[in-house]
Design a protein that fits this description.
Rossmann fold; 2 domains; 12 strands; NAD; nucleotide binding; Glu/Leu/Phe/Val/Trp_DH
């Protein structure tokens, strides 16, 4: 991979390689864009098959965080970090403290948080060395598990979609097929049950499915069948790339709205959803509740304020739908437009008051920033 060509193509600001032989730390920090504020994005720990694979993943994730923060109305930019290693075997206090020192050297340009393979305990170890970390446990002054807030945001985005398709924000009597009963998926089921929705669920873990049957009266289906069940809303809350060439012809829903990242295998699949009349709530818009919640820690965490901000995901999804209609484009394209319009407006304000050129914020295709 020609890394500088990649940085130029997608206008990344900075890539930092972190290495500490004593602790075994091998980490990468990517800062994509800080026009709206410091870059915030989680720290992922994963045993990547190669260093190049780790760099590619971190670059992709950082760019996505720029869009997510922008459409969420946060005064934050996009960044991400990855630690190369097995989270089951390679974790240590010293490793995360060492990583915290690297974050501290950036002087606040990057703020980390938990992600796949890391925990609130890991964030607490990072916090020993730097204040530029959020998502720590409540006992350390943080906000704790962000899953309930992610689920709440998905519910609000789902309301916006239901209103567009059925003319009401109520989910009572609507059939929702939830794929994946992890932390977010299960919280979402609880909220939907309270709304009076009819639940169809699938998960590879039978105990989670059985629990959903007992608690919510959910109807179970096999994991491979969930994409094809007749429903009003399909809520993918597990792995990404759910909408692909194989699954598209099987879909029997009118709305796709869930917490999973990278729901579309390729952008063309979003275009096909639009052609088929299926309303898609773009993933980084509807699943931003967790980010919004941990970002509130930067102001001194207040759960009521964080909840109020997460509720605004309804407005964000409505905004995406409005742009989709205005520009006659699929919603995944409209979401990028919403993010870019906000970033460019702030960049224009900065140019006006400072005279500094921000050529890297000129409008580009929906694949770039």
């Amino acid at each position: 991979m020609q890394i500088f060509e990649k940085l130029e193509e997608y206008r990344y600001e900075q890539v930092v390689f972190c290495h500490d032989k004593a602790t075994g730390l091998k980490a990468i920090i990517v800062i994509h864009n800080t026009t709206l504020g410091p870059a915030l994005g989680g720290c992922r720990m994963y045993p990547y098959e190669s260093e190049e694979a780790a760099v590619v993943d971190c670059l992709r994730l950082a760019r996505g965080m720029t869009y997510k923060a922008a459409v969420s109305g946060l005064n934050l930019g996009g960044g991400k970090s990855v630690i190369i290693g097995d989270p089951e075997r390679d974790k240590s206090e010293a490793l995360f403290r060492s990583f915290g020192r690297y974050i501290e050297t950036l002087g606040g340009r990057y703020i980390t948080a938990e992600d796949v393979g890391t925990s609130t305990e890991d964030m607490a170890n990072i916090q020993v060395e730097t204040s530029y970390v959020v998502g720590v446990d409540k006992t350390y002054g943080g906000s704790g598990d962000p899953s309930p807030f992610t689920a709440l945001g998905v519910l609000q985005g789902m309301r916006a979609c239901v209103e567009e398709v059925f003319g009401t924000t109520s989910l009572e009597g609507r059939t929702v097929a939830v794929q994946g009963l992890g932390h977010v998926g299960y919280h979402l089921c609880r909220l939907l049950d309270e709304e009076g929705a009819n639940l169809i669920v699938a998960d590879v873990r039978k105990d989670r499915v059985e629990q959903a049957i007992r608690e919510f009266g959910a109807k179970p289906v096999a994991p491979e069948e969930i994409v094809s069940v007749p429903c009003d809303v399909f809520a993918p809350c597990a792995l990404g790339a759910v909408v692909n060439d194989e699954s598209l012809p099987k879909l029997r829903c009118q709305i796709i709205a869930g917490s999973a990242n990278n729901v579309l295998l390729e952008p063309r699949h979003g275009e096909e959803l639009s052609r088929r009349g299926i309303l898609y709530a773009p993933d980084y818009v509807i699943n931003a509740g967790g980010l919004i919640n941990v970002a509130d820690e930067l102001e001194g965490y207040n759960a009521q304020r964080a909840t109020s901000r997460v509720m605004r995901i309804y407005d964000a999804v409505k905004g995406v739908i409005a742009i989709s209609k205005r520009d006659r484009v699929p919603t995944h394209v409209a979401a990028d437009t919403l993010a870019l319009e906000r970033i460019e407006a702030i960049a224009g304000m900065v140019r006006l008051h400072t005279g500094h050129p921000y050529g890297h914020l000129q409008r580009r295709s929906r694949e770039r920033l």
